[in-house]
Amino acid sequence: MPCTTQKDLTPTQRERMQEAIQRLERALTGGTVRVSIGANGALAFKGIWRSDGVADLCAYRALTAAGSAALRKAIARAEVTAGRPLNLQAVNAGTHSHDGGSTWHNGH
């Protein structure tokens, strides 16, 4: 479930999160943000996008739920570049990066 459906969010917070996710989708489309896939197959977004506190995994889940073509294309490109597929087990476990994929952390 995308994090934008959390029960404790105010309508303003939810709106800001949706706007950040839309900015990310536009940045993926424009090529200013790329998907990075780690050695374990986890995903991070690399590039400049004003996230307003939206974590990469949250944005990934929201864009996946929306059927984002820009995300699918960016993942396909990243899989070719990295030489490995996106690992949904790593994504679902919460493996993430705070620095665009330079370092990776287990879910917390």
Can you describe what's shown?
There is one protein chain. With 108 residues, the protein is mostly helical. It has one domain (3-92). The protein is 45% helix and 9% strand. It contains 4 helices and 2 strands. A two-stranded antiparallel sheet has the order 1-2. The longest helix is centred in the N-terminal third of the chain and has 20 residues, at 11-30. The radius of gyration is 13 Å and the shape is globular. The two termini are 17 Å apart.
Strand content: 5-15%
DSSP strand tally: 2
Rough outline: globular
Summed up, the helix count is: 4
From the alpha carbons, calculate the radius of gyration and give it in angstroms: 13 Å
Question: If you average the pLDDT, what whole number results?
Answer: 89
Structural class of the secondary elements? mainly alpha
Return the domain count: 1
Low-pLDDT stretches: none
Q: Biggest sheet, open or closed, and with what strands and sense?
A: 2 strands, antiparallel
Order of helices and strands: HEEHHH
Distance between the termini: 17 Å
Which strand order do you get reading across the main beta sheet? 1-2
Helical residue percent? 40-55%
Q: Which helices and strands appear, and what pairs or packs with what?
A:
Layout: H1 11-30, E1 33-37, E2 43-47, H2 56-65, H3 69-82, H4 88-92
